[in-house]
Amino acid sequence: MKRNTDLLISLPHSEETEKAVIGALLIESGAIGEVVGILNADIFYDAALGKIYSAIASLYENNVKPDLLTVTKTLIRSGELEKVGGPFFLSTLSGNIASTANIVDHAQYLHQLWLARKLAIAGMEITKMATDPTADIDDVLTAVIKKIEGIAENTAYNSRMIDISTVATQCIAEYEKRREMARNGGKIGLTTGLSKLDHITGGWKPGQLIILAARPAMGKTAMLLHFAKSASIAGIPVVIFSLEMEVQALTNRALLSESEVNSDRFKAGTLSTEEETSLCQAIGQISCLPISLDDSANISMQQIKTRARELRRKGKCGLVLIDYLQLIDMRSMNRSYTREQEVSQCSRAAKIMAKELGVPVILLSQLSRQVEGRSDKMPLLSDLRESGAIEQDADIVMFIHRPEYYSEKAEKGFGVIRIAKQRDGTTGDIRFRYNESLTKITDYDKELPF
Questions:
Q1: Angle at 237 between CA 236 and CA 241, to 5 degrees
Q2: What's the gap between Cα 149 and its chain centre?
Q3: 348 contacts 325 by C-beta, under 8 angstroms
Q4: What is the spatial distance between Cα 438 and Cα 53, in angstroms, rounded to a whole number?
Q5: Which domains does the chain show, CATH number per domain?
Q6: Closest by CA position to 211, among listed 346, 102, 411, 303
């Protein structure tokens, strides 16, 4: 039977470029230093050339200058010389190169071809998984996202090493921007919607992971919406991943926070004419805000990062809020992981996402029941549920406490945000006010607009 050669796929590669790079490395011992952060043996489509590169890189790592002679000796010791074509092949590679001027460009091109091959192979594997009738589609999607993100991580091959004098100059430039903003009454970071919180934190900053934790019924979601509305009113595009509450319920809360209606009558459908007018106005105001909502119940941090990255690319993601950590899908490929290890992985992924996207990420978290056992009911860092790594990964850790929830004698309608950790600032307590339905939040010294 005749073989159908049309079905054969030639993976992306360039034999000429691979030989040119190896030849350049053999004639110029210092050239490896320019490309060692870009190349590795797997990048070479020709396995023999990959082995030669491994020998060159090995010599470089051991502070030995790689040249035709030292590379030949290294291949002899490893028993690979004849497998890669012998001494004649090595001399041919070096003899065909006159200059190493373009070696970085050539190395980057090989890196791109390698990524293209990995994508092509991943595409074949994805097709196989997707057409398997026994596979669970959610597991397939998670595996696909992980596979593609694993490839995408290899695009950042350039070193981030930088001279401290350059960084110092950048620091001064950033300070001058902050000084100018302060003179004009502007805020450095994204507004939190609470003036005292803005003062202590400087607002939310790009790359920060902010943990907002509390026991149930303390108002985590209400505070999340307050942060989201405040940022979006300032023109910052906000993305909310709500794993606990449906988008309709979340939007209902936002409408109540913006209007002057009674929450009980709103739920019962018995609003007065005036309240319905106020509600319509709130709908118009809320609809204009740059807020995107996702209420996927079973979603992983990888999926959150992928969706946030796509929105970021479209200019629709300047702040990410996730409600809440313990509900995130933490199914791990390592089945031996404990729950604490899974939560640790998740908080670390949230921090990496904040840094990669260059946006603040506010992650809500539950607290353990240990809080209930203390007389003042005030949370501590040790109460962060299921993982001490949450505290380690976070730039800011905040707790919400409502005294009236635990004591009838406590002042009504007032709560405390305790900043228990701030990597580059002070800690302390900030008071705030809220209405009876916990839909409106303001500064403590500002009256609520009932």
A1: 130
A2: 12
A3: no
A4: 64
A5: 10-155 (1.10.860.10), 186-443 (3.40.50.300)
A6: 346
* CA 270 – CA 262 distance, rounded (Å): 10
Percent of the chain past pLDDT 70, that is, above it, reads 92
Q: Which two tokens stand for residue 244?
A: 């606990």
Least Cα distance to 378 among 420, 336, 409, 341 occurs for 420
- Helix count and strand count (H, E) for the chain: 17, 9
Q: For residue 183, which amino acid is it? A: R
pLDDT band, very low/low/confident/very high, at 3 (cuts 50, 70, 90): very low
pTM exceeds cut of 0.85: no
> For residue 419, what are the β-bridge partners?
398, 428
What's the CA gap between 219 and 138, in Å, rounded? Answer: 32
- Give the alpha-carbon dihedral of 159, 164, 165, 167, to 10 degrees: 70
SS (H, E, C) 275-308: HHHHHHHHHHHHHCCCEEEECCCCCCHHHHHHHH
Cross-strand bridge partners of residue 214: 366
Position 386 scores a pLDDT of 62
Query: Which residues sit opposite 239 in a β-bridge?
Result: 292, 320
Residue pLDDT, tens place only, 381-409: 888 866 667 888 899 999 999 988 888 88
Single-letter code of the amino acid located at 431: R
Q: Which residues contact 393 (CB under 8 A, 6 or more apart)?
A: 209, 347, 348, 350, 351
For the chain, the farthest-separated pair of C-alpha atoms sits apart, in whole angstroms, at: 93
Computed on alpha carbons and rounded to an integer, the radius of gyration of the chain in Å comes to: 29
- Residues, the chain, total? 450
